[in-house]
Specification:
4-stranded antiparallel sheet; Methylamine Dehydrogenase, Chain H; mainly beta; globular; 345 residues
Length: 345
């Protein structure tokens, strides 16, 4: 990469973190060019969910708290400066995924000792909401939905699809989910349809892609899924369809009418896509934690291509999102925890 690098030292939770973000433009970088920056030197660093914020920053969930009390919501601004916020998180909190809301705030799921759906303002003020969650709840992924609400998946003892209003009122829906269901990813398309993935196969071949109405009516679809399909992350595409990452080695698409197709050509042997997000180029970008870790691109026509040059040794690309700089940002939960970016062109 060309241009100046900004290197900032940030003290957080008693540990010093190093963040180096390239400040160069994207004009001269080739499509698929990857840059990774080690997130920190503290033990047990673990990042997963991230999203572009309304303030032009990238926000993420920092799960580096097992037995350490370091869990936080993090933010990287346009200059590469990192901030982390903990005040307002309950003791034992474990933020997992995060998404921008139509109210101008960020919303996240908290799988900790006191499960919750949380809200954080662009200035870092955190509020958590619990009333309406079932006992044994495990909120997992979250997305902005129609009518200004946020929708989330719940993998707890009583799996559900949940909705939270901007004021924090939570309602969970279960009717239509089969026994053994494990709702995973969730997204809303440009046509206002809510889609989710159900990873509750358990060897029964019952994995599915589901849809939920604004009133909470759930239905699941399986026709078109490959044998042994394991759908995980899901994202809205540019034409009203939804695309999903299939960890059994495919990228799938579901039309607004519910027709599912999956593609494998262009993926490496041993591929395992886990997360997917829409890019600025009309393509979908995904992470692959398989035998040959990579970040990949799926064109709307279904052409797949993977990129791995620039990944750190032992890399495991996890979540992915569109950043304010027009590049795709991803978390790396491999042997060296990192934040990465890939040029979209």
């Amino acid at each position: 990469m060309t241009g100046r690098r900004l290197i900032g030292w940030v003290a957080a939770g008693g540990a010093w973190l190093l963040l180096a973000i390239g400040a160069a433009g994207t004009a001269t970088a080739a499509v698929g060019s990857i840059t990774e920056v080690p997130f920190g030197v503290r033990a047990h660093s673990y990042l997963f969910g991230l999203t572009g914020g309304p303030d032009g920053a990238v926000w993420f969930a920092d799960l580096s708290c097992t037995g350490l009390g370091h869990c936080a919501i993090g933010r990287v601004d346009r200059r590469g400066r990192l901030s982390e916020y903990r005040r307002g998180l309950a003791a034992g909190s474990v933020p997992y995924t995060i998404a921008g809301g139509p109210d101008g705030n960020l919303w996240f799921t908290d799988e900790g000792r006191r499960p919750a759906i949380g809200r954080i303002t662009p200035r870092g003020q955190i509020t958590e909401f619990r009333h309406g969650l079932a006992g044994g709840s495990e909120p997992f992924t979250i997305t902005a939905g129609p009518a200004g609400d946020m929708w989330f998946t719940d993998q707890g003892r009583r799996p559900a699809i949940g909705r939270i209003t901007p004021r924090g009122q939570i309602t969970e829906f279960r009717r239509g989910l089969p026994s053994g269901s494990t709702p995973f990813g969730i997204t809303a398309t440009s046509r206002g349809r809510l889609w989710f993935t159900d990873h509750g196969c358990n060897g029964s071949g019952r994995c599915a892609v589901g849809r939920v109405s604004a009133s909470g009516r759930i239905s699941e679809l399986r026709r078109g899924l490959r044998a042994g399909s394991q759908p995980l992350g899901i994202a809205a595409g540019p034409g009203g369809e939804a695309w999903f990452a299939d960890s059994s080695g495919a990228i799938g698409r579901v039309t607004s009418g519910g027709r599912i197709t999956e593609r494998t050509r262009g993926l490496a042997a041993g591929s395992s896509p886990v997360a997917i997000a829409a890019g600025p180029d009309g393509s979908l970008w995904f992470t692959d934690e398989g035998v040959h870790p990579a970040v990949g691109r799926a064109t709307r026509a279904g052409s797949l291509r993977e990129f791995s040059r620039g990944l750190l040794p032992g890399s495991q690309p996890a979540d992915i999102t569109l950043g304010p700089d027009g590049r795709m940002w991803f978390t790396d939960e491999g042997s060296t925890t990192a934040l990465g970016r890939v040029t979209t062109g």
